[in-house]
Amino acid sequence: MITIRGARPEDAAELVRLRRLMFADMSGRDAPGDWERDAEEIARRQLSARVPVLGAFVVDGDPALGAPHLAACAVGRLEERLPAPGHPTGRFGFVFTVCTDVRYRGRGFARATTEALLDWFAAQGVTRVDLHATPDAERLYRSLGFAEHSLALSLDLSHRRADPA
C-alpha cells in the first residue's frame, strides 16, 4: 500500500530536488541554479499559506536509503479566473511537477500522488485541470481522463522590458 501525505513547508527543498530531476529527465541535462533557492522559498511560503493555493502530495522515501527524502511528488497550483458558463467557480488547477526519484520508479507513486492532487483540486471547487505532458507521461495522464481541449500557445516574456510608466 502506498502512503501519501500532503507536503509540509519543511518538504520544500525535497520538492525542488524532485523538480530538478524532472527537468533533467525532460531535457537530458541537469540545470542547477539560483532558481532552486527561489523555488524553495516560494514553495515554503505557499505551503504555509493560510488560504491554500499550492497543492502538493508526496510519498516519503525509505529511511534505509539515507537521509530523510521524498520518493515522489505531484504539485499543482490553484488558479482563480473569472467564472465562465462551463466553469462557474472560476477555479482551475495546473499541475506543474510530477516526479518520482529514480530509486522508486515503477511502483505507482506518480499515479497515486497525482490522484491525491486531483482529489484536492476537486475539493477546492476546481472545474478543470491543465498540465503539459511529456511523451513518457502522456499514457498516465490519459488514463486519468486528461485529453486535448485546445491549442495551447505560449509567449516567453523573459526578455521583454516592462514600461516604467
Automatic annotation (TrEMBL):
Cellular component annotations (GO), alphabetically ordered: ribosome
Boundaries of every N-acetyltransferase domain copy: 2-165
Gene3D superfamilies, alphabetized: 3.40.630.30
MF term (GO), any: acyltransferase activity, transferring groups other than amino-acyl groups
Domain of life according to the entry: Bacteria
InterPro entries according to UniProt: Acyl_CoA_acyltransferase (IPR016181), Bact_Acetyltransf (IPR050832), GNAT_dom (IPR000182)
Entry protein name: Ribosomal protein S18 acetylase RimI-like enzyme
Organism: Streptomyces netropsis (Streptoverticillium netropsis)
Species classification: Bacteria, Bacillati, Actinomycetota, Actinomycetes, Kitasatosporales
